[in-house]
Amino acid sequence: MFEILKTKDGSDTVFSKQYNATYHSIHGAVRESNHVFIENGLRVAISKFDSLSILEIGLGTALNLFLTLKELSNKPIRYTAIEKFPLSEDIYSNLSYAKEEGFIHVHQLPWNEKIEVKDGFVIEKINADFLEFKSKEIYNLVYLDAFAPTTQNELWQVEVLQKIFHMMAHQGILVTYCAKGELKRNLKSVGFIVETLAGPPGKREMTRAIRP
Fold first, then answer.
1. How does residue 60 score in pLDDT terms, banded at 50, 70 and 90?
2. Phi, psi at 195, each rounded to 5°
3. 3-class secondary structure for 163-211?
């Protein structure tokens, strides 16, 4: 069902046979995550908010979560990650970044529990379909990292974007690698202010959206 592939920056990604798609860019898994989610999402949010509540739609390899955890910040962070199909240990333990301290621990955290992994950083991994997910939490940063609309179209529909919009704080930030015109039109239609930014290597553009 899953296969590990090497990407152009030397880091690994996972190929899903079910979705016939990779979890990250083949041009560089770590480079893509750093560019889209850390540089253009997390660091901007850290500069805007006193504390962060992060929602990730598509935990996948947990690379975004791991890179977020590594980022130096003295602000409290609550990180909620939704994943319908968790990776097995024989996959995540053999990824290139599994050698880094703390990566395996993130995967071995129990599901559906809030765990403080270091001072002020709380992780809750939820094994669920985002279409059925409900929360009273208000998020000020969203990582939209589902498979592409051509593969997992149901998670990019207007109704889903509207659901995300209503879960977000004012001035909250949504970042995604996807830069399709239809996505940007849909984001605008539900009320987001949309920015088109330079993409990571191998991709011309990415999208950042702000809830007014």
1. very high
2. -120, 135
3. HHHHHEEEEEEEEECCCCHHHHHHHHHCCCEEEEEECCCCCCEEEEEEC
**Residue 179 structural domain:** 35-210
> Does residue 188 register a pLDDT over 90?
yes
pLDDT at 122 over 80: yes
As for how many domains the chain has, the answer is 1
The verdict on residue 7 lying in a domain is no
Residue 74 lies in a domain: yes
pTM higher than 0.90: yes
Look at residue 72 and tell me whether its pLDDT is greater than 90. no
- Give a yes or no: residue 114 inside a domain: yes
Is residue 30 in a domain?
Answer: no
